[in-house]
Amino acid sequence: MMEKIPVSVYVLTTNNRRTIERCLKSLSWAQELVVVDSFSQDGTYEICKQYADKIFQKKWTGHRDQYQYAADLTTQGWIMFVDADEEIPPELAEEIRMDSIRRMVSGW
User: Fold this and answer.
1) How many folded domains does the chain comprise?
2) Among 34, 46, 65, 89, whose Cα sits 20 to 30 Å from the Cα of 58?
3) Is residue 107 assigned to a domain?
């Protein structure tokens, strides 16, 4: 397993049972994984509890509000958002790790 990278990653979910486990597993390198679930009814929340460092439920109030809410819950200096149906390949995680060492990147 790769050493944790000092990055907070947050994921917004609503009924993403089919994709969320692969997504969260692909983020195991992150120092902090925050999930904000909009009261999923398909078991998504239960899956997230297995992987997330922090998980919260919040009624969906729009993209901007959900993003800001989740970002405010993070603690690392670098923050990254990942969609619930995305996976971060190991090569990208390694690139993020190297960039975090160099501290020369403002976004991916």
Assistant:
1) 1
2) 89
3) no
Tokens 């969609």 appear where?
83
For 48-86, how does the pLDDT look when each residue is reduced to its tens digit (9 = 90+)?
999 999 999 999 999 999 999 999 999 999 999 999 999
Record the tokens describing residue 24, joined without a space: 């969260």
pLDDT in tens, 2-15: 689 999 999 999 99
- Looking up residue 18, the CATH number of its domain turns out to be 3.90.550.10
Distance CA 29, CA 88 (A): 10
Q: Which residues span the domain enclosing 76?
A: 5-102
Extract the tokens encoding 15: 């009924």
CA distances from 5 to 1, 28, 85, 88, 93 (A): 12, 9, 21, 13, 9
